[in-house]
Design goal:
It is a single chain. With about 425 residues, this protein is mainly α. About 80% of the residues lie in helices and about 0% in strands. The C terminus is likely disordered. The longest helix is centred in the middle third of the chain and has 33 residues. It folds into 2 domains: about 180 residues, MFS general substrate transporter like domains (Growth Hormone, Chain: A); about 200 residues, Growth Hormone, Chain: A.
Length: about 425
């Protein structure tokens, strides 16, 4: 029976989430594990710290710049073919990374990984919302986000494996697994034939064009509001991820390892719970009011702002951790609802393109936020003051969401069952 048949549609929709959850986790694991095996790589292939940092930077620069184009490809062509092709190529590049014999080859492999991985995220989220068109939409995105966080948390596998085998071993292992899993997806993953985007693609003269997609999105005031919100939130995320461990270390006289574990361990756990809680909550409110999916992350930002203030003024570590947990839980409401919000404000033909542009703004803002934090530190601005700015920025995020207006036609199209 077809995956689009009424009898199996919901079951298959959740199968799609499960299949893509593995890909999402692998996507982040493949890109992040290099940062956990610095010592092993530098011993095998001598390089400066700046050169090692460039291995990650070049990935993110290319990933961010190509995200809008990757989104357009997902709107123009088959989402599943793009996902499978992306997984196959980046897994092959991951395998080749383990066989690099010079710094230049390693840098080239990271650039190629940025190109291939950029094609996954907009297509995957667009495919999920194609299958989950209403009461399960936010939770489905939340489950996928939770799987991604598992991949992030498993990034230490690279360093652990490099110590016991060699730095190339985890790249070969995960690259081979990804290639094999691409074959599994080829057998199981299908595009839904009845999605609004597919129906429009089938109409004569309705093929998606990149400039037309950008023009359609830029003509929506709500999309500009979403861009400002998502970019600002990306900058906040960059500051917290990079500078919060330093704050914990200096504030509570922790070792580097203890501070890092205190932040990443609690933050990942809280964010994992938050994407699921935010998904269930938004789906529940979304049944009764169109703005429910917008109000949930807006409320989350309203809670995250004082949570940052709480940890910023805490005198003892447990209180600071409580603030960090509240921030991680409520800030992640936005992660699970950004694509559903986009479905409310944008033409169904341009969802993946729209998310690709959002991704570009978010990644760019994250990099700027990290740099700004360092520049302020160099100017002897204390981290307490920097996190006061973060709290104020979260209030601005909430205000942006509360001000976001849903075009009636787009809302009906985005939530159509």
């Amino acid at each position: 029976m077809s995956p689009n048949s009424p009898r199996h549609s919901l079951r298959y929709a959740w199968l799609v989430v499960a299949l893509l959850g593995v890909v999402g986790a692998l996507n982040y694991l493949d890109r992040m594990m290099i940062t956990t095996m610095r010592k092993s790589i530098v011993e095998a292939m001598p390089m400066t710290d700046a050169q090692f940092g460039l291995l990650t930077s070049v990935f993110f620069w290319i990933y961010a710049l190509l995200s809008p184009v990757a989104g357009f490809l997902a709107d123009r062509f088959s989402r599943t073919r793009l996902i499978i092709g992306s997984l196959f190529v980046w897994s092959a590049v991951t395998w080749l990374t383990g066989h690099a014999r010079s710094y230049e080859e390693l840098l080239l492999s990271r650039a190629l990984m940025g190109i291939s991985e950029a094609c996954y995220f907009p297509a995957a989220l667009a495919l999920i919302v194609d299958y989950h068109r209403g009461t399960t939409r936010s939770l489905a995105i939340g489950v996928h986000m939770a799987a991604i966080m598992v991949g992030q948390a498993l990034g230490g596998f690279g360093g652990w494996s490099a110590e016991r085998h060699s730095w190339s071993f985890p790249f070969s292992l995960l690259g081979g697994f990804g290639i094999a899993y691409a074959v599994v997806l080829l057998l199981l993953l299908r595009d839904p034939s009845a999605s609004p985007a597919d129906q429009r693609k089938a109409e004569p003269g309705s093929r998606v064009r990149f400039l037309e997609a950008l023009a359609s999105l830029c003509a929506l005031p709500a999309y500009w509001t979403a861009l400002c919100f998502w970019g600002l939130l990306g900058g906040i995320g960059g500051v917290v991820a990079v500078w919060m461990p330093t704050y914990f270390q200096e504030r509570f006289q922790l070792t580097q390892g203890a501070a890092g574990f205190s932040v990443t361990g609690w933050l990942y756990a809280a964010s994992f719970a938050g994407v699921l809680l935010g998904g269930v909550w938004a789906d529940t409110w979304g049944r009764r009011r169109a703005r429910g999916r917008i109000l949930v992350p807006a409320i989350g930002a309203c809670i995250a702002a004082p949570a940052i203030l709480l940890l910023n003024t805490a005198e003892v570590l447990p209180v600071a951790i409580l603030g960090l947990v509240l921030y991680g839980t409520t800030r992640s409401f936005s992660d699970t609802n950004m694509m559903p919000i986009l479905c409310l404000i944008a033409d169904a033909r341009y969802r993946a393109t729209g998310y690709g542009v959002l991704n570009l703004f978010s990644c760019t803002a994250a990099g700027l936020g990290i740099y700004a934090g360092g520049a302020l530190r160099d100017a002897r601005i204390p981290l307490n003051t920097i996190f006061l700015m973060v709290s104020a920025a979260l209030v601005c995020c909430a205000l942006l969401l509360f001000s976001l207006r849903i075009p009636a036609k787009a809302a009906m199209e985005g939530e159509s069952p």
